[in-house]
Amino acid sequence: VAGAASGTLTTVPVAVVTGATGGIGRWIALGLAQAGHDVVLVGRSQHRGDDTLAWIAARAPGARLEFYVADLASLAATRLVAERIVVRAPAIDVLVNNAGVFCTRREETPEGHERVIAVNHLAPFVLTRALLPALSSAPRARIVNIGSSTSDRARIDPADLAGKRRWGMVHAYSQSKLALMMATFGWALRLHGTSITANVVHPGLVATGLVRASGVVGWVWRGMAPFVLTAEQGADTPLHVALSAEFAGISGSYVKRRRVVPPNRRALDAGLVEQVWRATEALVGF
Ligand SMILES: NC(=O)c1ccc[n+]([C@@H]2O[C@H](COP(=O)([O-])OP(=O)(O)OC[C@H]3O[C@@H](n4cnc5c(N)ncnc54)[C@H](OP(=O)(O)O)[C@@H]3O)[C@@H](O)[C@H]2O)c1
After folding, report:
1. 97 C-alpha vs ligand 1 centroid, how far in Å?
2. What is the DSSP letter of 212?
3. Is 9 a residue whose pLDDT tops 80?
4. Distance separating alpha carbons of residues 194 and 91, to the nearest angstrom
5. Could you tell me the sign of the dihedral formed by the alpha carbons of 128, 79, 43, 169, in that order?
6. How far is the CA of 21 from the centre of ligand 1 (A)?
């Protein structure tokens, strides 16, 4: 983990965006900077971080930006970056858990977690938990988790979030996004009556580098690019949920195209949501 600068960010609202070095996240970070936030960007490459800081600075002159390197496939690195962020930003107004991966093969991280669930679900869970005191210190705070419509018909097995018994590229991704949705609803429930809201957003089908496969899967993904949303368009709904007055009091919702929509019915099953919450706590070691 590498960071920047000293002192604290306190004068204007502060936003934290993960996976901000490319795709939709870069545009979300830009939108938050243009809306007057100090933006803390998290990514896993210093080089891409520097490039993104320059890209945003050119479009949002005067924005205060900081970049922290952390590989969010590692829960240790996720905890460490959270510790470093709260030193700099004791009050956080917006947290966008955007970093995500789609893998074509099952891989385990050095910590022994399946990579897709680690990046897409466990890291946001750990980061959110670690940043809660800072989110509570802002007058009002919003957690915006970037989910996916692939969760809409997904199934989930709380006993097999890591896909040890069953793993397929689409199942692993959609299950991780359903788990993220359930955690979002779990946070909303636990934070009810506080100054913090939590919502999950589908950004649309967006031409980004999400699918980094060669072969047919990569070919199909890249072939769709001219017919789907641009990354800038994909940032629209996340930014709307993060910034608009309309979403100031809305929590525990699933949002597509700026509208609250019904989620997968499994995400409304309180017993199943609780099982996924407990399985997640066990995986991250709480
Ligand atoms: N594109 C779509 O159609 C679509 C649809 C629904 C949901 N989403 C979701 O939208 C979010 C953004 O994805 P995208 O489409 O913009 O894809 P993307 O272009 O691949 O961007 C993903 C971002 O996450 C970062 N990231 C990946 N693994 C990381 C790790 N281990 N540690 C830290 N950062 C990591 C990437 O950093 P690097 O540059 O270092 O790889 C990149 O900045 C994801 O959660 C994705 O699941 C996308």
Report:
1. 10
2. -
3. no
4. 15
5. negative
6. 9
In angstroms, what is the C-alpha Rg of the chain?
A: 17
Q: Is the dihedral of CA 196, 80, 169, 102 positive or negative?
A: positive
Q: Percent of the chain scored above 70 by pLDDT?
A: 97
* Closest to 151 measured CA to CA, from 174, 167, 183, 173: 174
Predicted local confidence at residue 5, as pLDDT: 54
One-letter amino acid of 10: T
* pLDDT for residue 1: 37
Give the separation between CA 206 and CA 209, rounded to whole angstroms.
Answer: 9
Confirm if 150 and 101 have CB atoms less than 8 A apart. no
77 within ligand 1 shell (Cβ under 6 A): no
Whether the model clears a pTM of 0.70, i.e. scores above it, the answer is yes
99 close to 126: Cβ distance less than 8 angstroms: no
Cβ atoms < 10 Å from Cβ of 191: 20
Find all residues with CB under 8 Å of 245, minimum gap 6, and list them: none
Q: Residue 46 — φ and ψ, nearest 5°? A: -60, -40
